[in-house]
Amino acid sequence: MVDYDLLIPYGWTESVAEDYLPHLDPGSIPARIVRMDRGECEVVTPDGPARATCPRADSEVSGLCTGDWVVLDARSHVRTLLPRRSVIARSSASGRSERQVLAANVDTVLICTAADGDVDLGRIERMLALVWEGGAQPVVALTKADAADNVPLDEVRAVAPGATVLAVSAETGAGLDVLAAVLDGTVALLGPSGAGKSTLANALLGADIFATNQVRGADKKGRHTTVHRELRPLPGGGTLIDTPGLRGVGVWDAAEGIGRTFSDIEELARDCRFDDCAHDREPGCAVRDAVDSGILTPRRLHSYRKLARENAWLQARSDKRLQAERDQAWRSITKQQRRMYRERGTR
Prior knowledge:
By secondary structure, this protein is α/β, with parallel strands linked by helices.
């Protein structure tokens, strides 16, 4: 008899069980991906940890990621990807108008930024847009608070409407109890190298699970200590996914996420004279009036417009790429049909 209780520490719920029901047969095994490798992945099953073979990239089940729930066959091959409840994704770092999934089936995303350096509000806004778009709840953690002369909590809260913003220190334990209380379900850590993600992950796990490195003293930048996305159960319930540092945070089809990140600007825009106001030099622009009166900072408006333009450009580029792929497919079909007709005519 299969003991599904062994999957509960890894996020098994009644909802996941319902998704698995159509695949319930003697040759199928439910599993959650805890780490991806080339061609293979580490999974957890009702029988414990195992290695599984991933499908080819051109198969119907491709693009698997840490956090995915899948169905294995008796030979430990991934056969089915169960429906995802959330997907945290960015535009591919390759710049080829492709999506890169960072984590799947995530409930909370912990956006980590080191408080002892320059806190990049624009980067935080970008990550917030990704998280809101992906269907998870963002929490912003200003890490290394013990080493910071000034922790800009108010500034970060001002750019993170709807998100919890906390100052924490994995070294001293300050703020960790409050942080643990707001985390729910599967938690993914996002942030640049040197933000202290792995150190914070170890503190939340209560053990030195993930390797850590010191940042460079000159520029406060870190090395890529974490090279895989890896899922671990949290001692108080729930699971945690540590991820490699993000150099670039490109948005991907994130119109809704941008709207939620900049809900203050979206609210102001409702009072603009024109529905398609670009908030530049149009008369009767409520957003520009808010900037002029000091209610809204020029930096935040610039960030909003930049992300909106980037998202629109990427969508247009992606549409052109998809159209080119469709055109190529039709040309191939047409060539095959012509060849078939020629072969028939010679018979």
